[in-house]
Specification:
Length: 298
Amino acid sequence: MRSRRTKALTVVAGLAAIVAIGGNAARGSDDPSLAGLEPAVRVTTTPYAATPTTPGTTTPTTPGATAASRPAARASAPAPSPPEPAAPTTSPRATSPAPAASATWVVTKVVDGDTIWAARAGVTHKVRVIGIDTPEIGQCGYSEASRNLRGIIGGQQVTLTAGARDDVDRYGRLLRYVDVNGVDAGLRQIKQGFAVARYDSRDGYGRHSREAAYVRADRSSPKAPCAMPSTGTGISSAGPWPLPGDKHPCPQSRPVKGNEDSMIAHEPGDRYYGVTNPEQCFTTMSAAEAAGFRPARA
């Protein structure tokens, strides 16, 4: 009888212990009476370790980790955009207006066998024919070459066309081909023996577009005879000197008159040659221009 009572008490005590353990588990594990008791199942978690990443790679995650356990994505500032290139700016060069490459002009004066004055739209220019050379004033053939060119183009409308390496020569004269009624005046001068082909690629002046034809004509054309031989130092000794009506003559060997007040040079045949009182006299107009004088335009 006593053993049955003892067993019953033992069962009751065991049930009470189980109830006590369940209550403590519900309230937490702060009860000192449960210190040292190990739970039947231990739950462990692996903390997420932030791993440094490089641009372009993905961040590794721990298997089993939830989205809540991952750190929030770090906001990165957008890369700065490259600056826009500045709009190109252009500064127009200041250029002086140049005569048209090919235009119609009126011949106002024939200076010699390779030089003329021509006017267009109220503008007058001294023009040097490209690629030819004729005798200077006072040299053998000067009068013939001048007279022949005057017969080809004098007082007519001509077409001036650029074609030399340079637009003007060192004296400021336009370098142009001179054509009249389809005739190349420079080539005609060569073919008739009043000019030679010169001032081209053979003597350092650069090739001009009609050079081959000029050189070919020069090789085959006869040289015109000199009707008025000269001493070679000035105007021909033949004929009267001073010229009729010349009030202030220069020496016959230096017929070009230089007026220092205006710095204009006059040569025989100019409108005001006879009334010009010269301070200087020159052998040729080229010599006067080299001294700083400019040729008269009439």
